Please model this.
Amino acid sequence: MTSAPPTSPAAVPEPIEPGNSLWHDAWLRLRKNKLATFGLVSLSVIAVACLLGPLLSSYGYEEQNLDLGASAPSAAHWLGTDTLGRDLLVRLLAGGRISLAVGLAATFVALTIGVVYGAVAGFFGGKLDAVMMRSVDIMYSMPFPIFVILLMVLFGRNILLLFVAIGAVEWLTMARIVRGQVMSIKKMEFIEAARSLGLGRRRIIFRHILPNMLGPIIVYTTLTIPGVMLLEAFLSFLGLGVQPPMSSWGVLIKDGAEKMEEFPWLLIFPGTMFSLTLFSLNFLGDGLRDALDVRSSKD
Amino acid sequence: MFRFITSRFLQSLLALFLVITATFFMVRFVPGGPFTAEKAVTPEILRNLEAHYGLDQPLWRQYLDYLGSLARGDLGPSFKYPNRTVNEIIFDKVPVSAELGAISLAVALVLGIGLGTLAAIRRNTWVDYVASSFGMIGISIPTFVVGPLLVLALAIHLGWFNASGWYGPADRVLPALVLGIAYAAPLSRLTRGGLLEVLNQDFIRTARAKGASEFRVVTRHALRGGLLPVVSFLGPAVAGILTGSFVIETIFQIPGIGREFVNSAFNRDYTLVLGTVILYAVLIMALNLAVDIAQAWMNPKVRLES
Model:
């Protein structure tokens, strides 16, 4: 009960109040799920390594060693070096910071827009809801990945723009899920009770309705992060994402793919690291869905 | 049903109009024009070029002109390839991407639905575990990792295929496999989940009790309902196979429309950018419409908005 979950960006939230049996039960169910636990542990390890690793290493991620050039994994450089003699392990961990940061930040943008939009549409209902959800339908049918590519090409590769562009693509499903939840919760008796006590709309939405749909929101957020990270890496792979001297896993994979013929480790290690992270996030999301008993049906 | 289809159709038209307008103004409000890259352009030549393509007109005029010619099916001349129209370029490149997409889709459907069905009817056996792991691995390893790794192993080390290019039938294998697997993975998970839900229901027990063979139970009774989630995934999936081909066409250097689109954006070839965006938008909207109709047709419970 008092054992705090490991600190990681995607960690299960601590029980809201001590002895809150609903969250505690979910935590126990999650821990029984071996694959989800594996995902949680490996994510925590990756996150901590990315945060602390570059500080502990004796190499800087930009530090070149042109005499050395590309070298295979060795005792001095565990994962080898790239063509400029930079230590791959440090670059991998430093790039991980960017990839994880983009994943979390863009997901946060999507989460905020989606929850507010969905909650407003679901709570007020009627004409407003019809207009808002019809707009979501229309946006669903737009070629958004193409817009993101276009935005990145035309307006330069600004990392802030990257967050906003990706976040703006990913909020639609969240809005639909939240709306559906709000519609069903707002008919329940405790909401009527809150209303008869004279509480304002804002207080009812944010204090009474929102906390009751944290489950689906957490699950969907966990499953959005890998999608967002994939989109960032996809853009970086096309040369449209993060720009040097910064690097992300997508950039490292792109560089590795270009040089894989002579120096295969430059592709294999970043590819493995990225895939392992997505793998863990997907397992954790699946596990959370079972643990929090969220029905997978959308809308 | 008719009202449902018309309202969805009108909605798509509105969305298409928004896409065209947004893209038109987005490309124009960006620093750098199509002719800035050319070095020896004197101001006079630049003015002539702009007059030739109508770029000296006020923006609203250009916009109306563009909509006018679009209504006649004319996407205009390319700014970057002299003497070529956008229509020509698109007709040139689309068959390549369409071929890649069609083969990949076939791979995805056969592999995805096949493995998903196997996993569902052999639930909790090693068959299920193998198929489910394939699903999870396929979801988590992106195409731009699988692609280069397969090239490294099968093309460079074993020499079975060419590392890139688009000439003989053998050049189709790797790109279609990479793109197909990426969509087979989520398809297999959806199929398994959908089938498991259906296989527990009473009408399946009735079918079994009547003595129908297991094969018939699965193919005739269970798959119809079990594939519902798959159908709704297909719209986005086909769209994804089309947009995903950016990466595949880059890795394997395939002369398709995806690569052309990225290049045209870099070159600020306004008309070519617009033309490709419109093409993608029309395709995606048509697919979504088809999925909505197919879903309504397959499941009477999906309520039609009226």
Observations:
- Confidence is low (pLDDT under 50) at residues 1-8 of chain A.
- The longest helix of chain A spans residues 88-124.
- Chain A touches chain B at residues 134, 137-143, 145-147, 149-151, 153-155, 226, 230, 233-234, 237-238, 250, 253-254, 256-257, 260-261, 264, 267-268, 271, 274-275, 278-279, 282-283, 296 (CB under 8 Å).
- Chain A has one domain: 80-296.
